[in-house]
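Technical annex, item 7. During the second reporting period the consortium partners agreed on a shared format for inverse folding records so that results from different sites could be compared directly. Each record opens with the tokenized structure and is followed by the designed sequence. A conforming record, contributed by the partner at site C, is shown below for reference.
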């Protein structure tokens, strides 16, 4: 590696060609970055600076005069756009010699025999826009590109501020860079990561793309980018981070935070991947399934509608499960897939109505596909029946609420206080049940074409108080936001807090959705009518989101040897009990004794959040950074001291799980004999 100080314009001079490799991100400097550069250049001249440092530029030489830009493409592209603006203005001002100088010294290789002789070659999507700026016809410009927008900013600002373009060139000549010229033996990936160690500019997907493509030959870079990565970006609307995280979590069977996502990907790659192209094919297939689900591009109208309504729950933890089903299955059966979507929707709707914490859902869905496959293989049942069995066996914060819990929650939950999209799901489900052929009303509720209304108003006037009777305040406080007092209309401002008979008349003439039929048949709206409406609407929701039927109940029985996974309870230490394994963040693991189980749990917590773990270790008397007799190593340089009781072991686990915001039931202990519990 050879690094030295250069004038930026000196670096541009000569017959060099600066190629931005395909793995680099798009040109994305914003107007504020361009404004700062222009302001700095003006200050350089007015303050008479001799030099002005603007950072490093890392490149690796290719054939002939080609230089592949590893780091610094944003500055290089921006200053090239500034020179283009200067060149265009010089031509307009009749300064043809100066324009020719700018063009030949900084923008093109005038003697090059290549078809395109521009010095700078951005990545494909940016290059088209960049090349168009050399045209004399503005109609050729790609005006929706960031490249054009920043060129146009410089062009307009120079003219608006009446800047002297020759002085502007002199200021650019004072810009200094550290040019790092990599040699063939240099590890460009390692150097790139050290230069971008703050992680402020690059997304996890940017880092992963660079990791996969950077050390490849230009030919392989082009092949991998065009055949796989470009398609992955298209399928995820140029935001593949979420999709790749789904893939990685599915492969590793554990939740991964954004902070350690990139390092986890590298670790997975280095340990498990022997064929990079096969990995890219798999991620591309995941992206195709992701796109099909998110854009709802199935043949079945019913399936597309179900996926749309599911998306309104604003909980995407289910997506890796559905993606895995599409990717791993031999051939997608849309009827079966619709069944799975219905089961998942019912599971999520019942849980949010019953106010069950969502913490456990990530773990449920990360392992759900493999859990269901095991049941299919063991019992020979259908995938949808196996899914029902797996979810029905869930307990604690992962449970699938049964009818009694769901009914009670529907009765007491203040539905009006739910998020708009969640309310939309419930009322759309009711409307679809009452009028199956009607269009869905999901967007209409969110966009407020339809509104979810109180029949008994939020503010009672004297007429409403009289209708409700002497206990009007108690009735109002208890029932105003509950399901039985709500309906859907397009008449928000008209209904307001009018008396009930007026509301009925207006709804009959202007807001007659099927859901309003019961309301319009009433002459009064008291606690009795609200209770009847509550039962009516609850019954409909129970039928739409009905608990799925498991045909073979034997699947739920414990195995003959009575091995059982018991959800951990906070404060429990399992003294005098023998365990044979545990299930936690990385799935199930067999272990011989308690100390092995404890060490395994601590190691998983250490990987889950190393910052929290290390802070905790430093303040605990049960850990040391010095090995001693009987001490057990948790990870590199961290030891658990000897003589710790089971009670203290699980006290440590409970506190660490609290700090990591993990629920006790996410840890399960396996015992040989259920009677011992």
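Designed sequence (site C submission):
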């Amino acid at each position: 590696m050879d690094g030295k100080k250069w004038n930026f314009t000196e670096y541009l001079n000569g017959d060099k060609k600066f190629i931005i490799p395909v793995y680099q991100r798009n040109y994305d400097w914003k107007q504020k970055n361009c404004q700062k550069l222009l302001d700095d250049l003006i200050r350089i001249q007015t303050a008479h600076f001799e030099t002005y440092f603007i950072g490093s530029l890392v490149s690796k030489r290719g054939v002939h005069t080609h230089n592949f830009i590893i780091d610094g493409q944003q500055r290089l592209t921006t200053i090239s756009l500034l020179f283009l603006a200067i060149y265009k203005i010089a031509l307009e001002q009749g300064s043809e010699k100066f324009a020719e100088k700018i063009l030949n010294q900084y923008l093109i290789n005038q003697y090059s025999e290549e078809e395109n002789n521009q010095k700078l070659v951005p990545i494909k999507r940016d290059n088209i826009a960049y090349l168009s700026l050399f045209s004399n016809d503005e109609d050729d410009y790609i005006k929706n590109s960031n490249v054009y927008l920043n060129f146009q900013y410089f062009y307009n600002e120079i003219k608006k501020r009446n800047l002297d373009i020759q002085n502007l060139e002199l200021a650019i000549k004072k810009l200094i860079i550290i040019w790092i010229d990599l040699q063939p033996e240099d590890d460009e990936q390692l150097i790139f990561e050290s230069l971008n160690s703050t992680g402020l500019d690059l997304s996890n997907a940017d880092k992963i793309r660079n990791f996969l493509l950077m050390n490849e030959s230009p030919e392989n870079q082009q092949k991998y980018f065009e055949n796989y990565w470009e398609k992955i970006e298209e399928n995820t609307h140029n935001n593949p981070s979420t999709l790749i995280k789904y893939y990685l979590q599915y492969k590793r069977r554990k939740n991964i935070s954004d902070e350690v996502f990139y390092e986890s990907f590298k670790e997975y790659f280095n340990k498990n991947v022997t064929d990079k192209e096969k990995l890219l094919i798999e991620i591309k297939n995941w992206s195709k399934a992701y796109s099909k689900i998110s854009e709802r591009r199935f043949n079945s109208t019913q399936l597309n509608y179900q996926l749309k309504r599911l998306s309104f729950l604003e909980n995407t933890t289910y997506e890796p499960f559905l993606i895995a089903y599409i990717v791993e299955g031999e051939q997608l059966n849309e009827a079966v897939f619709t069944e799975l979507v219905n089961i998942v929707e019912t599971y999520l709707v019942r849980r949010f109505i019953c106010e069950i914490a969502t913490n456990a859902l990530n773990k449920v869905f990360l392992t759900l596909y493999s859990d269901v496959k095991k049941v299919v293989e063991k019992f020979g049942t259908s995938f949808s029946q196996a899914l029902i069995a797996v979810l029905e066996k869930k307990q604690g914060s992962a449970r699938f609420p049964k009818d009694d819990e769901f009914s009670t929650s529907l009765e007491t939950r203040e539905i009006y206080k739910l998020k708009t999209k969640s309310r939309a799901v419930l009322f759309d489900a009711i409307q679809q049940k009452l009028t199956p052929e009607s269009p869905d009303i999901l967007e209409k509720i969110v966009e407020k074409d339809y509104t979810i209304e109180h029949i008994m108003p939020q503010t009672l006037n004297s007429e409403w108080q009289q209708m409700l009777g002497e206990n009007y305040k108690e009735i109002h406080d208890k029932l105003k936001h509950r399901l039985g007092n709500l309906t859907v209309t397009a008449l928000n401002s008209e209904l307001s807090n009018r008396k009930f008979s007026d509301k009925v008349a207006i709804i009959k003439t202007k807001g007659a959705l099927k859901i309003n039929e019961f309301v319009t048949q009433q002459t009064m709206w008291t606690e009795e009518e609200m209770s009847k409406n509550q039962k009516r609407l609850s019954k409909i929701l129970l039928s739409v989101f009905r608990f799925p039927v498991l045909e073979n109940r034997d699947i739920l029985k414990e195995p003959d040897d009575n091995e059982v996974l018991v959800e951990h309870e906070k404060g429990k230490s399992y003294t005098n009990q023998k365990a044979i394994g545990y299930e936690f963040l990385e799935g199930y693991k067999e272990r011989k004794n308690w100390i092995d189980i404890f060490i395994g749990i601590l190691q998983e917590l250490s990987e889950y959040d190393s910052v929290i773990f290390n802070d905790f270790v430093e303040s605990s008397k049960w850990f040391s950074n010095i090995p001693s007799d009987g001490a057990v190593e948790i990870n590199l340089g961290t030891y658990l001291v000897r003589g710790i009781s089971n009670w203290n072991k699980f006290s440590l686990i409970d506190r660490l799980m609290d700090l990591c915001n993990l629920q006790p039931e996410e840890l399960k202990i396996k015992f040989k004999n259920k009677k011992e519990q």
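The two ends are 64 Å apart (CA to CA). The longest helix spans residues 73-92. All partners now use this format for quarterly exchanges.
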